[in-house]
Amino acid sequence: HLQLQQSGPGLVKPSDTLSLTCSVSGGSISSSSFYWGWLRQPPGRSLEWLGSVFYTGTTSYNQSLESRLTISIDTSKNQFSLRLNSVTAADTAIYYCSRHGDIVAVPAESGWFDPWGQGTSVTVSS
Amino acid sequence: DIVMTQSPDSLSVSLGERATINCKSSQSLLYRSNNKNYLAWYQQKPGQPPKLLIYWASTRESGVPDRFSGGGSGTDFTLTISSLRAEDVAVYYCQQYYSRPPRTFGQGTKLEIK
After folding, report:
1. Which of A38, A39, A47 to mutate to test the interface with B (most CBs of B within 10 A)?
2. What are the tens digits of pLDDT across the range A5-24?
3. What's the CA angle centered on A56, arms B50 and A23, to 5 degrees?
4. Bridge partners of B91?
5. To the nearest whole angstrom, how far is the Cα of B82 from the nearest Cα of chain A?
6. How many inter-chain contacts (A to B, CB under 8 Å) are there?
7. How many CB atoms lie within 10 A of CB B16?
8. How far apart are CA A112 and CA A29, in angstroms?
9. pLDDT at residue A102 above 90?
10. CA distance linking residue A101 with residue A88, whole number of Å
11. What H or E segment, with its residue span, contains residue A87?
12. Per-residue b/e over A18-42, b at no fewer than 16 CB within 10 Å?
């Protein structure tokens, strides 16, 4: 079955760039049926969708982060990545990768998130 | 953006009793062309990622026990656990996938044993 494995540092300095990677196993990231997304959860708070990428490289971002966020995909490695620039303490959170259905159509078929990566706890601190 | 509001924020229920969590959206999640409600429910246990329980407001994900059920339509939805078990202690979230991005989640409901 499909599994998502996250990797990346747990500590990032203010103003630096946060970089995380999600490796997909048990299935192809090149499926035309799914998008691959990143979400985060600040301590004690709810979930926030950050952005997603399609296997073609097409992306969709949360407007609140769009100026600082880049999500990319490497189909040869079956993985996708997140880069968040100019981080501050407000970016401290658990970051998750996940798969979901269409994000362009309104309404979106299969728009739920499943499965999820294990999560990466990221602290922004000097 | 569609705002998702859950109630209550926390809930204490005795083992074997029914637990009901509510989720209200700021606009309808019902697409009349196919009569589907674009809402999902998740369960998150401490230290774990969220787990998909229900989609299309009432369709259980494979492997989810049948004591979990989803209901409602339009703007008002419920997640019901018919007979609470100790392993159901978790935070539960609703999520809409009707609108253009961003996909949005409720603030969560913490379910505990009384």
Report:
1. A47
2. 999 999 999 999 999 999 99
3. 40
4. B44, B110
5. 24
6. 72
7. 9
8. 17
9. no
10. 31
11. none
12. bebbbbbeeeebeeeebbbbbbbbe
User: What is the rounded CA–CA span in Å between residue A51 and residue A63?
Assistant: 9
Those residues with Cβ within 8 angstroms of residue A58's Cβ, 6 or more apart along the chain or in another chain = none
pLDDT score for B86: 98
Mean pLDDT over A92-119 rounds to 92
Those residues with Cβ within 8 angstroms of residue B73's Cβ, 6 or more apart along the chain or in another chain: B30, B37, B57
Average pLDDT over residues A34-38: 96
CA proximity to A35, closest of A107, A118, A98, A105: A98
Contact yes or no for B99 and A60 at CB 8 A: no
Express each pLDDT in B50-101 by its tens digit: 999 999 999 999 999 999 999 999 999 999 999 999 999 999 999 999 988 8
Show the tokens assigned to B72.
Answer: 């409602």
Question: Rounded to an integer, what distance in angstroms lies between the CA atom of residue A120 and that of residue A107?
Answer: 30
Q: Output the six-digit token pair for B113.
A: 């044993």
pLDDT per position as a tens digit, A45-97: 999 999 999 999 999 999 999 999 999 999 999 999 999 999 999 999 999 99
Å between A17 CA and nearest CA of chain B: 23
Q: Return all residues near A44 (Cβ < 8 A) that are at least 6 apart.
A: none
In one-letter notation, the amino acid at residue B90 is: A
DSSP-derived letter for residue A68 is: T
Amino acid (one-letter) located at A12? V
Interface of B with A in 62-91 (CB under 8 A): none
- The candidate with the shortest Cα–Cα distance to B30, out of B78, B96, B74, is B74
